[in-house]
Amino acid sequence: xxxxxxxxxxxxxxxxxxxxxxxxxxxxxxxxxxxxxxxxxxxxxxxxxxxxxxxxxxxxxxxxxxxxxxxxxxxxxxxxxxxxxxxxxxxxxxxxxxxxxxxxxxxxxxxxxxxxxxxxxxxxxxxxxxxxxxxxxxxxxxxxxxxxxxxxxxxxxxxxxxxxxxxxxxxxxxxxxxxxxxxxxxxxxxxxxxxxxxxxxxxxxxxxxxxxxxxxxxxxxxxxxx
Length: 226
Known about the structure:
- This protein has one domain.
- Helix content is 66%, strand content 0%.
- The chain has helices at residues 15-18, 21-52, 74-93, 96-119, 135-142, 153-164, 169-188, 194-214, 216-223.
- α3 (74-93) packs antiparallel against α7 (169-188), α4 (96-119) crosses α9 (216-223) and α6 runs parallel beside α8 (194-214).
- It is globular, with a radius of gyration of 19 Å.
- Residues 1-8 have low confidence and may be disordered.
């Protein structure tokens, strides 16, 4: 029986291939790169928090937020975001072919965002919805998701994932939907300025192509997915 275009093909790239000598060094590099990214993000957010206590750190007007009533959507921003990270991790781990490029692209995303966070310090918009004191809020705060405004990680990271899995229609739609839902949530909760949200997809698009340039072998694995 011939295989038609509508018949899904089994991916021959497995964890055995991932841990093979050919890709082992790349995997270790990806994990180390992610560790460096988190350290960079941590110190960038600590610096941003320290700077926010200075009298020169003031909020600015925002055409959209000035005319948008604040709505408490912290459940989406905190619990749903953490759930999305867990489910997204499981999704990627089930696709060994994508692990190397995804890790490196996300690490690059985090490092570039940390760089931008360190540059300009604008006070957070008044009447914003801050994290609570629950367990998930504590995890959310510990992971430094609240500090740092430009650019929105809630919006940009799912958009980046959509670009990585663009050829998988369902995954693409889910990640794009998540990006849109999180964008609306952080705007309505006044957690981000509108420029942070609207710039995020463009930043993610640029980071995606930078990752393709710097990690071509890992991207070729993604491009060769059945």
